[in-house]
Structure formats: structure tokens, C-alpha cells
Design goal:
Length: 883
């Protein structure tokens, strides 16, 4: 006769027979109910965060107390997980014996915790599950394997809650720890068993990830696979919390947060740290600052917000030039939802405690959120698509759709007769299910080809990939060997699904680094396959060495402070590494925006292109953000505008309480603002206030604004000039475009605007624009220098003849004839000879980079090269009494 908890020789680890002997009673389920409330299952030993059932649901203790000692202290039942070897040597899959074993996977003993999001199951190869067939849990017979081998812990929101089986003498069965060790019999009601695995969902995750990688590597497009992850995350998260509510368990949201981010952050932090190291070794200095900022934003789950800010910030360097960690935008969005979404379930927690159904109210809540988000998404996508793409609020409807499907799926499964592979009955409508699953797969495969995902998402068109993923979920198990679920349930799909989180983390940085090294815009077939293969190997290593050990560590799960330490350490490592690197780069920098800043010290003439590389070119790549010509004070005193204006940051040279002999106001676009460093030295020496009233991207014009962005700026300038009455207005009046097909010109409305200023008795300095380029001139020249080239090589590679960039004559020449009130006139300034000496516009002159991007001059170049011209002009105006 067997004892109450007996290990069966030859059976897989973790299988035991409980009770005094075999018999039909050992498989009969029962429940214990109370007349005062709904049936409350006991604790699930596989969930270390779960509270004892007698605690009031969602009380203060749920937020603060540690897991019960019976669950936390397993030293007498399992091996401790704190040793390094226990972290690094996880159980390996059992040897396969046939092709079928390879395709379906062997039986394993480890049980993953509840699937709470689309990234929550990296242990499918070493995972198993408990039978939940029709609401009962059966103890496997000797030598019997469970039927879901090698599958993911993706759980269905439809699975019934099963109860523990009693022993032959009628007493409750002894629950079993996931390690296979029997626990002492609880005095509480029996616990629910593990829900049925959805192997096809694990395969769906693998398919979505492969689509993401393939489209990135070979097509240079976005596939819509990320939307599937958003959808699945909400589907699984909602199923988890609804089961907690319906089972009478506490929501325990803070512990969910710790458990989730303890899982996700260590692998992410490792990849970010490796990316920082690769950036320092392989990428040019101009990209370092961007990658450092992206690293901090990624590990703190605000990368998508940082990208939104960069899209609307005119001064932000183009993130596409250093996108090493840009793919973290979707993980950041998921992380934000993982924080907010669980809190929504508190809205029905009281209702759940009284035994009332919660799915209806939750469906109403998610419908409202989804409708509002979808309406905003459609509007935002039409008006500011590049911002909407990274906007969490514009994608909340995708999460809401996943939640609604999780809430409705039990009813849909009952109506359609859904079954799982472990059930004795075949599912109804098997052929229809198989075809529905294939329709979903075909829809996913076609989405990125037919639709411009990156240019039209996340508006209503994102229903396409969500509908395709929903079709696979609804189809479920078809019972047909030719069904889509059969393909998605194979061992190769499970392997890719297992490493999908790490594969998503590593594939993009590897691709970016390879494209930078090979100087390609897109990978070819052979090198693309190599990138994908290396990505999969690294993903497997990270999963095996970091992801799985941390995810499955009972030592970390046993105490909340341990999980919190893992989360904090992951963030601290990335933030500390980025901060330390930045500190090392900038510790010798003494540049400031205070008056009296010295001009750069130069040893080479700035009207020549060196034939050998200077010891030090300036500005350094990581200093480019400081090359914007800011003034030290916000506008104040008599120079403060009466009202602020969108996109105008009013700055001034002297403080608001200072007295100035004269005032110069800079208006127009950022190209007007470029003249400020060249005027500062003279202004500081001659008690002159400089006010920067420029508006990035908006040129000086009159009449109807060229777009909504500039609407109202013209009148704002006139109102300011009328109140302040400056002595001089400085503006760039021509526009140099990027190719000979788009020649330089002066907008016709600019002449009218200049005349309007002259009529106010204010002199105008009209500056001719500098050349613009089709590609970033700093990065182009920097790449040549980093490869061992010279400024002369950079000139050949990146420069152009002046006739290809500018017209032979200044298009603004006619402005010199204009006159205004009180003898006000126009002074033309043309710097063409300064940045295009001897008829050649080069990216490097002397030891200074001329451009900071595709059209803005570096502040160092303006100070060193343009200051003499502007000083001479201002002195001449002073002698004439114009200022």
C-alpha cells in the first residue's frame, strides 16, 4: 500500500500518488462552500504571491505582508535557489526518441506560474501542466505522461476551476509543490489546479516575433507583430486577474508588479548594458549621447515617451541615426500598461467579494476605454502619425480588445463547443476552427506587406493584426492534423516561443550594428540569415543563463524585498553605467552659456580643408546637443512678451533687471537664430540686449501662414516689436533647399514682412541662408574620420560644389532697395564665402565641423568663423547711427 505522498520509481520527477491506496475515490473532486459567500479555493502552491484564503481580499495586508511561511520556506522540501550553480544549471530537456518527440516535445516536471502577459513563459521546453479536464484534477497513473508535453504556460481564460482530489479515505489530497515534493495537508479548502495550456498561443507568439524580426531584417518595414504582443499581454493579464476575482483570491497588485518586473528587467538590463558597450566600441561619438538617453529611458519603461518628445522637439537629434534601443518603445508601452491595467480590477473587487459576477462590469469598463482610445488613435494618426505611433493612449484600445476577448472567451467556447487536447471529446466545428486559425495566420503574414504599418498605425487599420490574432485565439484546438493550431503547437514553434522575449531584445541591436558596420541600408539574404542566427543563439543563452533562472527562482519569489532588489539592481546598473560614461566624457568640458564664453582656440585656418586629420576636431560628437545657440536668460523685465506663443522660447542675453543701450531682436526660423553666437561678443562689449524670438521651423513671412504650425507667428512678432521698439531685427530671408532640383529662393511674402518691419522704423539685417543637405553632414564626415580618413576625404565623400547648393546671386538682393520710416533700411549679409571657400562647401574647415546635422551650423563654427563678419556689420550700423 502506498503512503500519502509516494514517489513512484521510474515516473517523471514531480509525479506522486497521494492517499492510502488506489481507487476511484482518489479521482473524485469536491468543493467546500459556505452559506455566507461563494466557494473560496485554497492557495495555489505554484503561486508564491498568493495569500492564505482566510485573509480578507485586497486588505492592507495584501499590499504589505510577506508570503506565508508554508509557501515561502521550502528549505526542507526543495533545494535552495540562492547558489550560483542553481541559478546557472537549470534542468535540460529530456532526450528525444523520435521525430514526433522532437515536434511535440518531451514531458517535463517544471510548472510555470500563471501566464500574466505575452512575455511570461520562457520555460515551455522545461514546463508541464496539470490536467483540468472538466473540472477535476487526476493524479497520473504510474508510468503515465501528461498529454501536453513541451508546451507553454500560456493559460486560457476559459479553463474551469478544478478542485483537489480526495484520498481514498475521503480526506483532501495533499497538495504538491511544483518541485514534486508533497506539502502538508492544508486545513483550508482545496486549491484550483493549473489551467490548460494554450500551445497554439505560444506558437502564435513565436510567429509574431519571427514576423517582427524578418520584416526588420529583410524588408525594412514594420509587420504588425508588435500589436499581437500588446493584444496577447492584455488577454493573458485579464484572464489572470479575473480568475483571482472569481476564485476569491486577493488581487495582490503590488506583488504582481514585483513578480512581473523581476522577470522582465534582468534580461533587458543585460541587453542594454551590452548595447552600451557595443556603442562605445563600434558606433561613432555623435550617437553616444542618444544611446545613453535611450538606455535610461528603456530600463525605466519610458522609451516610447522619449521618442514622442523627440518627434515634437525640433532640437532633438534624429533618433533614427542611433536607433540601437529604439525597439524598447513597445516594451515600455507594455510596462506602463502592466502598472495601470491591474488597478482597473479594483473597480469590481467589492462586487467579487459578494459573489456577484464581474465579467459584465469589466466588459463595460474596457469597452469605454477602448472606444475612447480608438477615437483618439484615429484622430491622432491622421494629424500626427509619428507621435501617435509611440503614444500609449493611442494604443490602449489594442489592450482593451485583448481584455474583452479574455472576458468573452468562456461564453464563446461554451457556445461553440471548444475543447483542449487533454479532453476526451473532440471539439465541435473542428474543420471550421482549423480554417479560422489558418485565416488568422494568413492575415498576420499579409498585414505588413499590404499595409504600411509604420505609416498608418495605430489607427483603425490596426484592427487587421488584432483580428488575425483573435482568430487564432478563437479557433483554439481544432483536432485536425492539418489545422493551424497543429503547426503552432510543434516543438520548433515552442522553441522560438521560449526565447521570444530575449530574441526581441537582441535582434534589433545586432541588426543596427551590422548595418552600421557594413554601411548598408538593409541586410541581404546571407548576412540577414547570419544576423537572425546569431540573434537566436544569443537569445537562447540569455534565456538559459538569465531569464529562466531569475524567472524560476523560488528564493527571489519567497520575499518581496528580494524581487524588489532584483528590479532596483537592474535599473541601477543601467542608469549607473550611462551616468558614469557621460560623466567621464564631460568632466573636462568647461563650456557654459554665461556671458564671456571664449571663442574656440584654433591652430588651422578655417578657409581650408586639411589634408591630414587634426589631433582634435570640434565639436566632439557627444557635444552636439550643446551646439544650439541658446542665450543665458529667459525673457524678463521690459523684454518679456505679454503672452507666450507656442513653440517660441523667448531668451535674452542680459538679465531682466539690466539696462541696455540698444536691443536686437532675432526673428524667423532656427537659421536666423544661428547668427546669435556671432553677435554675442560685440553685444556684450557694447551694452546691447539680444532677444531670441525665433520659432524653429517657421520662416519670416507675411499674409497667410504656410501651415497651421506657423499660424499667428507673424502677428506675434509685430505685436512684440510694437511694444519693445528694438533698434534692429535680424532674420534669415532665403531658403536653400537640399538638391539642385530644388534651388535656393526667397519666399515672396518675406519681402512684404521685411517692409512691414521697416515701416515701424526698425532696421533689418537680412541674412542669406547656408546650404542644406540630403544627409547629416556631421555624421557623414565623422564616419570618414572614424575610418581613418582625413577632412579632405570627407570633403570628397560628403561635400559639394557651391553651384550645386546655392544660386550664383543672392535671391534677397532686391531687399537692399527697400526703405522704411525714419530712414530704416536693410543690410544684406551673405556668409557663402565663409562656409563654401573657393567654391566648395566642405563639412570640415580647419579643425571645425561646419554642420551639426543636415543644415544647421555648429555653434563653434559660427563663433570662430562668422563673428568677424557680424562684428564688422554691427560696427558699421553703429557708425551710421542706425543702432
Amino acid at each position: 500500500m502506498l503512503s500519502r505522498s509516494t514517489r513512484i520509481p521510474g515516473a517523471p520527477r514531480g509525479f506522486r500518488v497521494h492517499g492510502s491506496g488506489p481507487g476511484p475515490a482518489a479521482r473524485k473532486g469536491f468543493t467546500i462552500s459556505s452559506p455566507s459567500g461563494p466557494s473560496r479555493p485554497g492557495p495555489d502552491p505554484a503561486d508564491p504571491w498568493q495569500q492564505e484564503p482566510e485573509l480578507p481580499a485586497d486588505s492592507l495586508e495584501d499590499w504589505t505582508q510577506e508570503p506565508s511561511p508554508e509557501l515561502a520556506d521550502t528549505s526542507d522540501r526543495v533545494s535552495p535557489r540562492s547558489e550560483l550553480t542553481a541559478w546557472l544549471t537549470e534542468p535540460a530537456p529530456r532526450a528525444t526518441s523520435s521525430l514526433e518527440d522532437w515536434l511535440q516535445g518531451p514531458v517535463e516536471a517544471h510548472v510555470e506560474q500563471e501566464a500574466e502577459d505575452a512575455w511570461s513563459t520562457a520555460d515551455a521546453i522545461t514546463g508541464t501542466w496539470r490536467d483540468t479536464e472538466r473540472g477535476r484534477t487526476e493524479t497520473p497513473a504510474v508510468g503515465t505522461e501528461t498529454p501536453a508535453a513541451g508546451t507553454a504556460a500560456l493559460t486560457s481564460a476559459t479553463a474551469p476551476v478544478a478542485t483537489a482530489a480526495p484520498t481514498a479515505d475521503g480526506s483532501p489530497a495533499v497538495p504538491e509543490h511544483p518541485s514534486g515534493t508533497a506539502l502538508s495537508a492544508p486545513a483550508t479548502p482545496p486549491q484550483p489546479s493549473r489551467r490548460a495550456f494554450r500551445r497554439e498561443l505560444h506558437g502564435l507568439r513565436a510567429l509574431a516575433l519571427l514576423l517582427v524580426a524578418v520584416y526588420h531584417i529583410w524588408l525594412g518595414r514594420v509587420s504588425g507583430g508588435v500589436d499581437v504582443f500588446l493584444f496577447l499581454s492584455a488577454f493573458l493579464l485579464t484572464g489572470t486577474f479575473v480568475r483571482r476575482l472569481e476564485g476569491g483570491r486577493p488581487l495582490a497588485v503590488p506583488r504582481y508588479w514585483l513578480h512581473t518586473f523581476k522577470r522582465l528587467l534582468p534580461p533587458a538590463a543585460l541587453v542594454i548594458l551590452l548595447s552600451l558597450a557595443a556603442t562605445a566600441a563600434l558606433l561613432p561619438p555623435s550617437q553616444w549621447a542618444t544611446v545613453m538617453r535611450q538606455a535610461v529611458a528603456s530600463v525605466t519603461y519610458v522609451q516610447n515617451i522619449a521618442l514622442v518628445v523627440a518627434e515634437v522637439d525640433y532640437q532633438a537629434r534624429d533618433a533614427s541615426s542611433a536607433p540601437l534601443l529604439q525597439h524598447f518603445w513597445s516594451l515600455s508601452m507594455q510596462g506602463q500598461v502592466f502598472v495601470v491595467w491591474p488597478l482597473l480590477f479594483y473597480a469590481v473587487a467589492r462586487r467579487a467579494r459578494t459573489g456577484k459576477p464581474v465579467r459584465g462590469p469589466l466588459a463595460m469598463l474596457f469597452t469605454l476605454i477602448g472606444a475612447a482610445s480608438l477615437a483618439w488613435s484615429i484622430h491622432s494618426t491622421q494629424t500626427q502619425q509619428q507621435v501617435a505611433y509611440f503614444d500609449t493612449t493611442a494604443r490602449l484600445w489594442e489592450f482593451a480588445a485583448g481584455s474583452l476577448l479574455a472576458l468573452a472567451l468562456p461564453w464563446l467556447d461554451r457556445v461553440t463547443g471548444a475543447r483542449r487536447p487533454e479532453d476526451e471529446e473532440a471539439p465541435r466545428l473542428g474543420a471550421v476552427r482549423a480554417l479560422t486559425g489558418w485565416a488568422g495566420i494568413v492575415g498576420l503574414l499579409a498585414c505588413g506587406i499590404v499595409v504600411d504599418v509604420s505609416g498608418s498605425f495605430p489607427g483603425w487599420i490596426a484592427i487587421w493584426p488584432l483580428g488575425a490574432a483573435g482568430a487564432v485565439v478563437l479557433a483554439g484546438y481544432s483536432g485536425r492534423r492539418w489545422g493551424a493550431d497543429a503547426l503552432l503547437s510543434t516543438r520548433p514553434a515552442a522553441v522560438i516561443g521560449d526565447i521570444s522575449y530575449a530574441l526581441y531584445l537582441v535582434h534589433w541591436p545586432l541588426l543596427v550594428l551590422w548595418l552600421h558596420h557594413s554601411d548598408q541600408e538593409r541586410a541581404g539574404l546571407a548576412d540577414g540569415l547570419a544576423v537572425l542566427a546569431v540573434s537566436m543563439v544569443l537569445a537562447w543563452l540569455i534565456t538559459r543563463a538569465v531569464d529562466s533562472p531569475v524567472r524560476r527562482s523560488r528564493w527571489l519569489e519567497a520575499r518581496a524585498w528580494r524581487s524588489l532588489t532584483a528590479v532596483a539592481a537592474s535599473i541601477a546598473l543601467v542608469v549607473g553605467a550611462s551616468g558614469a560614461w557621460w560623466t567621464l566624457l564631460t568632466r573636462d568640458s568647461t563650456e557654459t552659456e554665461e556671458p564671456g564664453v571664449a571663442e574656440p582656440t584654433l591652430t588651422l585656418p578655417t578657409d581650408e580643408v586639411p589634408t591630414s586629420a587634426p589631433p582634435q576636431l570640434q565639436p566632439k560628437g557627444w557635444e552636439l546637443d550643446k551646439q544650439w545657440p541658446n542665450l543665458p536668460h529667459r525673457c524678463g523685465g521690459p523684454w518679456k512678451p505679454e503672452e507666450p506663443f507656442n513653440h517660441v522660447t523667448c531668451q535674452q542675453l542680459l538679465p531682466g533687471d539690466a539696462s541696455a543701450e540698444r536691443t536686437i531682436v532675432v526673428v524667423g526660423s532656427s537659421h536666423s537664430r544661428q547668427q546669435i553666437p556671432a553677435m554675442r561678443t560685440w553685444a556684450e562689449e557694447n551694452d546691447t540686449q539680444i532677444v531670441n524670438l525665433s520659432m524653429d521651423g517657421c520662416w519670416l513671412h507675411a499674409g497667410v501662414a504656410p501651415d497651421d504650425y506657423c499660424a499667428g507667428y507673424e502677428q506675434y512678432v509685430y505685436d512684440y516689436l510694437d511694444r519693445v521698439e528694438p533698434d534692429l531685427v535680424v532674420a534669415t530671408v532665403t531658403r536653400a533647399l537640399q538638391s539642385p532640383e530644388d534651388p535656393e529662393f526667397m519666399p515672396g511674402s518675406t519681402e512684404v514682412a521685411v517692409q512691414n518691419i521697416l515701416d515701424r522704423g526698425i532696421d533689418v539685417v537680412a541674412v542669406r541662408d547656408n546650404p542644406k543637405w540630403a544627409k547629416d553632414q556631421y555624421e557623414c564626415a565623422e564616419a570618414v574620420i572614424e575610418d581613418g580618413g582625413t577632412p579632405e576625404d570627407a570633403n570628397d565623400e560628403c561635400g559639394a560644389d557651391v553651384e550645386d547648393k546655392l544660386l550664383p546671386e543672392n535671391p534677397a538682393q532686391q531687399l537692399a532697395e527697400l526703405e522704411g520710416a525714419d530712414g530704416a533700411g536693410v543690410t544684406l549679409v551673405d556668409h557663402t564665402e565663409a562656409f563654401c571657400p573657393d567654391g566648395r562647401c566642405a563639412p570640415i574647415l580647419g579643425e571645425i565641423y561646419v554642420y551639426m546635422d543636415d543644415g544647421h551650423l555648429t555653434k563653434d563654427f559660427v563663433r570662430a568663423v562668422l563673428t568677424p563678419t557680424m562684428t564688422e556689420m554691427l560696427e558699421e550700423l553703429e557708425r551710421e547711427g542706425a543702432i
